[in-house]
Write a structure and sequence with these properties.
The chain is built from twelve helices and four strands; from the N terminus they run H-H-E-H-E-H-E-H-H-E-H-H-H-H-H-H. The protein is an alpha/beta fold and 280 residues long. Helix 5 packs across helix 6. The structure holds nicotinic acid adenine dinucleotide, adenosine-5'-triphosphate and magnesium ion.
Length: 280
């Protein structure tokens, strides 16, 4: 294994193999302990898309809320459907909600808000907002909706970031990348699928092709299509296995280019961005 691969694996906290039951318990216990430590917190909120990551993080959030209630707190897990117009895989979102069995679910339509802000920026700048950037606005609007629910109800926002996403920075900065707690941190995509299977989720939720579902022009575009590398390859890299050199180069280039997303905003005192010149 190269030192770069070793460094990335260690920075993201990936391990080659997991025991799904142990990892589920560890992550539920983390949410419970963290919520207990914050005075006034009354549970969790998460957007549910119908994809693998929010199905897993949602079920873990629900289990944590139930455990907190068993201890006498009034904690709840709130699931939020956040469609931009009509969602092409609406059936999967319903299936995910059925599996998660949240204490409460609600739907917040983000279409009008996304169109309003992109139209206003277009009018102000005189340039059309690209479909790519509008996709990131959708992810950021979902963040705004979740924090609005969290603010009024005293909830923590769950994020779905995990190692197979963090390594490429394949999320929107301050969009789906913004959250209070990250129960899936360090996991590969395959480990997440194994945990969902262990939780008894319908196969569809963990065999489904992952999609960001952000583009008007290509709503179901798969993550693998966008990245030019498969999750099987990403997972292999994170598990310390040998991968094709083109795959390693792709991942390491993306990891370096997206370092800013895994950090706090850069200040004059920061040196991490100076690469090898970094002062320790
Ligand atoms: N070196 C640097 N230091 C500090 N800040 C830097 C920077 N480079 C860019 N930036 C800032 O970051 C911004 C770009 O980051 P960002 O806005 O995130 O945009 P960007 O990384 O260009 O795009 C997000 C990518 O994540 C994918 N995504 C998003 C959401 C969900 C999912 C999913 O799988 O569900 C996937 C999406 O399809 C797209 O490929 C720039 O506009 C700039 O403000
Ligand atoms: N239509 C949506 N409704 C509600 N939340 C959404 C929607 N689309 C995205 N999100 C939120 O943004 C997060 C990031 O999306 P991402 O595609 O990475 O995860 P996913 O859809 O749960 O799983 P997968 O990666 O397998 O598609 C989701 O986990 C979810 O919390
Ligand atoms: Mg998705």
């Amino acid at each position: 294994m190269s030192t770069e691969q070793e460094h990335i694996i260690s920075a993201l906290g990936s391990v080659p193999t997991i025991d799904p039951a142990t990892e589920i318990e560890r992550r539920v216990a983390f949410l419970v302990a963290y919520a207990r430590s914050v005075p006034g917190v009354r549970g969790f909120v998460l957007g549910i898309s119908g994809g693998q990551d929010s199905s897993l993080a949602g079920r873990i959030g629900q289990l944590a809320a139930e455990r907190l209630r068993a201890e006498g707190s009034d904690a709840r897990f709130v699931a939020v459907r956040l469609p931009y117009r009509e969602q092409h895989d609406e059936d999967d979102a319903r299936l995910a909600l059925e599996f998660i069995a949240p204490d409460e679910s609600m739907t917040v339509a983000i279409g009008a808000a996304v169109d309003e802000i992109t139209d206003a920026v277009s009018a102000g700048s005189g340039e059309r907002v690209t479909d790519f950037t509008k996709g990131n606005v959708k992810a950021r609007m979902r963040m705004v909706a979740q924090y609005t629910v969290a603010g009024d109800r005293g909830l923590l926002v769950i994020g779905t970031d995990h190692a197979a996403e963090a390594v490429t920075g394949f999320y929107t900065k301050h969009g789906d990348g913004a959250a209070d707690v990250l129960p899936l941190s360090g996991l590969t995509k395959g480990q997440g699928a194994a945990m969902l299977a262990h939780l008894g989720a319908p196969d569809r939720l963990w065999t489904k092709i992952p999609t960001a579902d952000l583009l008007d022009d290509d709503p179901g575009q798969s993550d693998e299509q966008s990245l030019g590398v498969s999750y099987t390859e990403i997972d292999a890299y994170l598990q310390g296995n040998a991968v094709d050199s083109a795959v390693a180069e792709n991942l390491e280039r993306r990891y370096t280019a997206t370092e800013h997303k895994r950090r706090m905003p850069v200040t004059p005192d920061d040196t991490w961005w100076m690469g090898e010149k970094e002062v320790r």
